[in-house]
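Researcher: First entry.
Model:
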Amino acid sequence: MSAVRVFGWTALAMAAFAANSVLNRMAVGAGWIDPLGFAAVRVVAGALMLALLLGVRGGVVWPGTRGRLAGVSGLVVYLVGFSVAYLALGAGIGALILFGAVQVTMFGGAVLSGEVVPGRRWLGAGLAFAGLVGLVAPGGAEVPVAGAVAMACAGIGWGIYSLAGRGASDALAATAWNFGLAVPVVVGVALIWGGMRAEAAGVWLAVLSGAVTSGLGYALWYTVLPGLGAARAAVAQLTVPVLAALGGAVVIGEAVGGRFWVASAVILSGVAIASAQSGLTRR
């Protein structure tokens, strides 16, 4: 895959991730569905969409056991942890904890796997993370411990899911099986601990999140991961809070102040520095 194509598909995947945040805010924030119910509908819709795509392509294919346990486990932890955390956390500090945990997990995975992480990439990652802190810093507000732990677990889960996807030879099949195997676990958690409260609008938003911005978005993410490597993939995901904030401003009408634009410039500069070396090919 060419460097330009990897860049374009990565940008589209990041937009899908940001859309998930906006859809979740719209549904759960308005009280149209409980958080765990949203996660359950989301994973079921994603699994059905991916199974349909596999059928259209020519049938269900088992992608192998490599990365399967890590992929499924990471996806479940992310979906459940994300939903539970937002029962206690505000969006800003939640995003900081989530993407901070993703950053640490994926950079740790890059180092442990022997991936070369040049100094420029560390500098870019640090700059991007500093901009993220400036964007979502809660101003010294007290952070609920339970919510912070749940969101940190979600970030670790997403980092593990992304690391597992680097070795996927068939991105669509790997994503489809990850979703399918995650369905009984996430639905079981929702049935046991969720409020099972939902209105039609909340269900449809969860379906859109699962089928399009999660199912298709994650399949795309697994496709571009081999061309990014763990370190650069971690940095790329720091753009998601910026995109989510823009989406929230446009779709939901959330206020975006001057600090947002300054932080956005810092984050995107960091991503550019980290991604500049040898194009977007893995190093």
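Researcher: Second entry.
Model:
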Amino acid sequence: MGTTGFIVPSLEHLLEVGHEVVAVYTQPPRPAGRGHKLRPTPVQEAAERLGLEVRTPRTLKDPEAQAAFAALRADLAIVGAYGLLLPKSVLDAPRLGCINLHASLLPRWRGAAPIERAILAGDAETGLSIFRMEEGLDTGPILAMRSVPIRPTTTASELHATLSRLAAEMLPEVVDGLAAGTLHAEPQPETGITYAHKLARDEGRLDFREPAAAIERRLRALNPSPGCWCEAKGERLLLLAGEVVDREGEPGTLVELPFTVACGESAVRVTRVQRAGRKPMTPDELQRGFPLPVGTKLG
């Protein structure tokens, strides 16, 4: 049960090691692109490629959906980045229950956006937790956990890929241990709990009064979605990547060409930028088509 590409390697690896997947649950296709054509989720695309049954209920709260799930008589449900609430009747239906693949070291960063929140907070490490699901938000006991470092240059997309592969590596041993009755869950600690709230679109608007280090983490955490942006000469610019440099000036002012912006503390040298409707480009390329002199105010 999943929607984003995060769980796809786990799905593929379970099949490779000989497990039977009786159904794949994912969210329904949604309009996308300029033509607003319905686009299936990455999980649906993978499942159809693998010849698996795909189910796309809009909710699991109605009795018909719950009965259809129970009728599968599944041994185990594996959930990762699904985005739908699992009622108690669904959690209780599989013989061995439901387990979740979660991209943090629980109980830190329970919730919807653990990868991005870890980078935004400047965490030195994160990891992958596999836990037995219960009705609370990511509160269930831990079956397995492994950590990975967050380096000063790690982006959300890189961390997503790393933890997705790690989940696939860890999952077969957990499934086999549950099937054999040899794997036992440990309760989560009662201290160190934080919540990774869903990302809001307006979090991408940069406030250069923040320290440059915080701005740089935001660039790594929020690209490609929801994206980081500012306005220059009445146009919105997406800032895709940058680095902290030792420059000073009024926050939000271009202090050095081609694109170094003063922040509340130090400055950010932007290394990748994008104009609306254009392809990503270097700051030098931006200056040739959209010149921004020193002293330009960005908001």
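Model: Note on the second entry: Helices lie at 8-16, 42-49, 63-70, 88-92, 114-120, 156-180, 212-222, 283-289.
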